[in-house]
Amino acid sequence: MPRRDTAAYLNAVRQIGDPVLRMAAQPVTTFDAALKELEARMIEAMYVNDGVGLAAPQIGVSLSIFVMDCDGVEATVINPKLTIIDPTDVTESEGCLSVLGVRRDRTRAARAKVEGVDVRGRLVVVEAEGYAARCLQHEFDHLQGRLFIDPV
Q: Does residue 1 carry a pLDDT above 70?
């Protein structure tokens, strides 16, 4: 549930054409109160905009962090490394808060895992299948400067 004035968060998500969405995000190296505030802003923006995931570049911050609340999987992952566990192709319709009004079929792996850390620097491992695996891969792509509409 949003805690702040939500109006600002409705316009916070950067849209296709913004250069930050095409840059590889920088690794997070400082774990402090500002990082915790960034996490809170990202979660707020994700919920206010009815999203299931959000990467920092989507709010104009080129840092390697994403948040998600997708199909029962809630996580904040910093400096993630993606591993495909089951490469079986699954093609589903996908959308994005940074490409409003567009949905396209996108093929993703059936099962994936990300390993990284949380805002305190503690190890985070998220393994998922189905829709949650799609979310992991989608948010990881944002940190590489890729959008779901890009050719594979």
A: no
The answer to whether residue 95 sits within a structural domain is yes
Q: Based on the structure, what is the number of domains in the chain?
A: 1
Look up the domain containing 98 and give its range: 7-143
Domain containing residue 91: CATH number: 3.90.45.10
Determine, yes or no, domain membership for 92: yes
Query: Does any domain span residue 148?
Result: no
d(CA 131, CA 139): 12
The CA–CA distances, whole Å, from 86 to 111, 124, 129, 133 equal 5, 20, 9, 10
For 116, the token pair is: 């990284």
Is there a domain that residue 150 lies in? no
| Cα dihedral across residues 10, 106, 64, 132: positive or negative | positive
Cα(23)–Cα(146) distance, rounded to whole angstroms? 8
Environment class of 117 (CB within 10 Å of its CB; exposed 0-12, middle 13-18, buried 19+): middle
Active-site residue set? 139
pLDDT tens digits for range 37-93? 999 999 999 999 999 999 999 999 999 999 999 999 999 999 999 999 999 999 999
